Amino acid sequence: MKRPYFRFVSVFLVAIVVSGFFGFVFAESEEINLPQRKIVVFKDGVSDVEKGRILSAARSVKVHKLRHGDALVAYVDNTSETKLLKNAKVVRVEDDVVVEALEGAADATDKKAKPAATQPVQMLPWGVYRINADRVWTLGETGGGINIGIIDTGISTTHPDLLGNIKGGVSEVAYTSNWNDDNGHGSHVAGVVAALNNTIGVVGGVPAANLYAIKVLDRNGSGYLSDVIDGIDWATANGMQVINLSLGTTTDVRSLHDAVIRAQNAGVVVVAAAGNSGGSVIYPAAYPEAIAVAATDFSNSAPYWSSRGPEVDLAAPGVSIYSTYKGTKYATLSGTSMASPHVAAAAAFVLKRATDTAFDELDNSCVSEFDVNCNGAWDPKEVQAKLEATATDLGTGGQDDIYGYGLVSAYAAFTN
């Protein structure tokens, strides 16, 4: 969890317990009813003043207001939650669960970042090569002008292999307003998407795309769901065309789903890591509005830890991926966290192509295969359909629970 909050919250809880604010009863035979962070969703039209009164009446303490809609984050114990739910102006109360960055089980080839006296000579990572992104470059397309939001631990503000593509960002975590990456995970993901095509380190799938750092996780790679929701809404409001979420939770929270729906409705392609438990696909990847990405290794096989299920849409390289890291470092990591940004890069290539908009000459009906609404623009579901239709089938024939529609191919998606 967020260690910077620990001392504050501990002191805060001691203070309110001593004052009897939450009416805790200390007894060895009874469970202590400690308050938790909750997302309190109000009906439309309730003023901020009234929300505050409702929280106070329920003996809850406001933490902050979410960017979108009528929701607040607050410290709420079980008794307070019961009182809130009885109020006609409260729609629901949800757990503000902890969300984790998704790094898979390390294998013998995985190495953490180490300082180097000089920047290494540029190499083409095997994952970028496997999805045939480099073949698109030979056609003159490198993803320039596409805005991609990395919703993660931030992006390094000093990395020479990333700086040229970083166009801005935001921090949604409480302990800093700086979106610099103090963990490394977000910078690694960003490098897979759009590390510069220069003479050092690595090169990303779309090396000319615009990167935006949306910091929602802390230095330990964890954070609150409410911060992830705010990050998605920031991306939606600030012109992102693709967002990558290499993070997740096993808890289905409606407010998270609503944020993903808002993003898709605004035209944002949502790409998310399926998870690293080897079990069910996690959220937000499990939502139908997100492209859920599983991992593959050098032999195009799924590692045992790659989550699976009917929600999996595509697969991409996720084992021993070499990419940028925090500061000016590089690192080799494994996980569906590394697979997801390969698909985000492929989605950017689709957005650079003209749609297949066409009409029947006789009745002027739409006859397009992918531009199903014939609006002449790539809608998120149409981008997903193009990626799925052009993927390389793996495993059993057709869609399956391990690879979805197969291994994503940036070249096939761009050219077919």
Write a compact overview of the structure shown.
This protein has 416 residues and is of the alpha/beta class. The chain has helices at 3-19, 48-57, 78-86, 126-130, 133-137, 185-194, 225-237, 254-265, 336-351, 380-389, 410-415, and strands spanning 36-42, 61-65, 71-76, 90-95, 98-101, 147-152, 166-171, 210-215, 222-224, 242-245, 247-248, 269-273, 291-296, 314-317, 321-324, 330-333. The protein has eleven helices and 16 strands.
SSE arrangement:
Layout: H1 3-19, E1 36-42, H2 48-57, E2 61-65, E3 71-76, H3 78-86, E4 90-95, E5 98-101, H4 126-130, H5 133-137, E6 147-152, E7 166-171, H6 185-194, E8 210-215, E9 222-224, H7 225-237, E10 242-245, E11 247-248, H8 254-265, E12 269-273, E13 291-296, E14 314-317, E15 321-324, E16 330-333, H9 336-351, H10 380-389, H11 410-415
Parallel strand pairs: 6-8, 6-10, 7-8, 10-12, 12-13, 13-14
Antiparallel strand pairs: 1-3, 1-4, 2-3, 5-9, 5-11, 15-16
Characterise this structure.
With 416 residues, the chain is an alpha/beta fold. The strands form 4 sheets. It has a 7-stranded parallel β-sheet with strand order 7-8-6-10-12-13-14, sandwiched between helices. The chain has helices at residues 3-19, 48-57, 78-86, 126-130, 133-137, 185-194, 225-237, 254-265, 336-351, 380-389, 410-415; strands spanning 36-42, 61-65, 71-76, 90-95, 98-101, 147-152, 166-171, 210-215, 222-224, 242-245, 247-248, 269-273, 291-296, 314-317, 321-324, 330-333. The longest helix has 17 residues, at 3-19. The termini are far apart. The protein has 2 domains: 3-96, Peptidase S8 propeptide/proteinase inhibitor I9 (Alpha-Beta Plaits); 118-351, 3-Layer(aba) Sandwich (Rossmann fold).
